[in-house]
Amino acid sequence: MISGILRGLGDSVMPLIFLLVACGMNIGLDIWFVAGFKMGVAGAAWATIISQAVSGILCLVRLLLMRDVLHITWRTLWPTKALLFQLIRLGLPSGLTQAVFSLAMLVVQSLTNSFGTTIIAVSTVVMRVDGFAMMPNFTFGTATTTFTGQNIGAGRLDRVEKGTKDGLKLGLSVSVVLVALILFFGRYLMEMFTSTPEVIDTGMHMMRILAIGYIAMAVTQILSGVMRGAGDTMTPMWISLITTVVIRVPIAYGLAALMHSADALFISLLTSWVMGAVLTSIAFRMGRWKKKSIINDDVPEPADVQA
Predict the structure, then answer these.
(1) Which of 53, 73, 154, 221 has its Cβ near the most Cβ atoms within 10 Å?
(2) Whole-prediction pTM value?
């Protein structure tokens, strides 16, 4: 939460540094507690708790030191009904989206398991490589959310529109390059997770099926980020539900029944990604998100907050 506040205030560097500190501390404490003190699973748990607590404290200290931007007191921290309602209204759709997405993944996982251990291994390895390809998309989505929120707050919708175009150019360019790298060198990435030739060969086949989907996801994440930053969290939620529940799950089971092949798992995923990009582009062009700004809502501003 505090990292989100810092990014909203324009400071995206310090949360990254604190995250790096937490990761480094987690690794060090893991080795110390598990290998040194022989604490087993409990040692790994305590390493995570301590490192995350340190990261949270560092973020809080950074926020408290930004007195030129805001001044936080105990009165500031007292809940305000109108603000709580706004936070729930903005955050609940994203939370529901993640919950439904996780449930859909469980349903698809049961189908994956039916194809046997080799396909389970392939799916696991492909999802590891998938993380490399998806990371820039999620990053650009987060960046456009922050960028949009800041500029709409400043009344600069013109900058939002230009920033969206620039973000799409950058996001699509990076996605094309990453997809090319994965298609040419993905085998070497997979060898980091498995040495079984059959798993690697099948994994590369599946990555070729998914390739164009990563470019589509760049469009989805960036445009969804703009809509969320403008306060329209419902539209991305409905699009995610449609593409995940209505499109992916039925297509996966339908194709599996027709093809009797694990390709159905990845063709359904590709279809949901492409349809997500199409639906998100349509929703974005309709412009409903431009009317969702909350800056003019009647919300009391605490006297202790100086922005």
Answers:
(1) 221
(2) 0.80
